[in-house]
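Bench log. Compound arrived from synthesis this morning; before running ITC I wanted a structural hypothesis for how FHN sits in the protein. Inputs:
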Amino acid sequence: MRHPARRPARTLGVLLGAGLLASALPSVSGAAEPAQPSPKAPRVTDGPGTNYAVDDPFTSDRTEWWRQDRFGMFIHFGAYSNLEGEYTRQDGTVCQDAEWIMRQCDIPKDAYEKQAATFDPSGFDAKKVVKAAKDAGQRYIVITSKHHDGYAMWPTKVNKWNLRDHSSFDKRRDIMRELKKEADKAGIKLGFYYSIWDWHDPDFADPATFPKYKKRMYAQLKELVGEYDPALLWFDGEWDAENPTNRWSPKDGAELERYVKGLKPSLLVNNRVGKRRVADGDFGTPEQEIPGQPVDGQPWESCMTLNGHWGFARYDHEWKSAAELTRNLLSTASRSGNYLLNIGPDKKGRVPDESVRRLRAMGDWLRANGQGRAVYGAGYSGLVEKPSWGEVSREGSKKLHAAVTEWPGKGRPLHLKARVPFDITGARVLGSGQKVTVKKSGDGFDITPSGDAVADTATVIELAVKSPGGVRGKGEGLKAEIWDNDSFEGTPKVTRTDGGINYAWRFDGSPDASVPADNFSTRWSGSIQPRYTDTYTFSTVSDDTAKVWIDGKLVIDAGVPHDPRVDKGTVKLKAGEKYDIKVEHREQGGEAHMKLLWSSPQQQQEVVPGSQLYKD
Ligand code: FHN
């Protein structure tokens, strides 16, 4: 199965031999100026004093639905679907791919446009698509509005390269509006995938004309947000690539994120709005893989195919089993991640039965016996080590759900290694009345069910746990001293109280309107009060430099200037105690970011809240 993440490199290899695709002017008016006045290219920021981190995506109301829903449906559907993954070249050879078929099969632009003109997804049934998602237990949908081939799946006014103006489809229909209507009725959030990289628009490749492409892109995004009110935008095609050369920059990303969130402040945006970094967007996007542990610095969502392709490929029968897919979902949720699982409708817009059957089987498992509790709103529990026999996720602070994929023989224990002291006060197998005994054993607990597994896919044992409650602080934040130089020299320009360190100043922002966007430094000082007695992991997301001292110990030393990245350090702390803390950030030039997060076996990852910080 091709690993799309390798696409760019592979594509580079293919394309260097394939000659320039983008140099051919479109036979359709792909480069028409937008019908409506194009949106003013917005300033990247309001300048000095602007902070782009409007909230903490780990805990904010804005991201709450997404962190609760956990499981979404990805849909790859576009003009490429009309070929169903196969293209017969003039020499009679058949070339196979899916959503990259134009490029991987070297289809000349006019031939691709000609085939797109026959595209007639009359079988697209939004009710059926939403039902498939609902039956699967998928609670949000992300559909490709425009993939790399530049073909818009809604009646954009920006150009004629779209499903309304360049197809054989019923011109009265709008599949995005149909999908939005059905999703709303079903209580399912709708998001749009949008590719920055555009193989069709002749202005994309040339730096001199790229601003014209950007204006058209902004105009299309304004249409999508204004016309369909999506809950999230899932950008893609942000990587450096050739043919057409993709020069998308972190600054382009900062500007684009600012723009779309200006259109709708509650919008969620993925990290491919920029350059797929921890400082871009609201969540990370590992693809075709599930990280082995919670991702540091940013919420995350793993996207995956049901077979080996995103777009429909009639020859690809390598379908993953429902059991494997469900276990992927359990692994993802147990690490506080989301799972975005893809379908690729065929050229008529129909969802393949193989997809529908697997998705329904996943939903059946989730609905049975309340087993969905191990996924929806569930997250990482640091109380225990990940066991070899399955996954363990937490529900709130009082429940763990052990999803057992390797059921022990009758009367044989499942061992759970504890990372911190806690008690298990109750245990039951969801969907079974069998007795479960729990006893302390060595470095943790032995959990012994007396009966059989409830389901081969996974059987969930719900554990009631009791651990020391967290100390709720009454802090107001740290003292912040801000210099308009990058070396803390002289008297601080600004001294104030900061209720936490959660800053994305990006390119033009700075800690205060009186401080220029470059060459500034900030020192936060005071004390920090941990909620739990634990070994805490502190993380910074920083650019250019960051240092963190706790109780006089240098916990993070990221003093060499760097691009946005995560640095971590650990320190043992006692619940309720107040420990000296000092944090320093320096900005020399370019981007500027500074966040301080914490996590521990009992503390979910979050920006350290002001309630646990004191000026002293
Ligand atoms: O190139 C695309 C690919 O076609 C697909 O859309 C995936 C889905 O996340 N994203 C890119 C590869 O990373």
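What the model suggests: Residues 1-6, 8-44 have pLDDT under 50 and may be disordered. Residues 478-614 form a domain with the Toxin - Anthrax Protective Antigen; domain 1 fold (CATH 3.90.182.10).
ITC booked for Thursday regardless.
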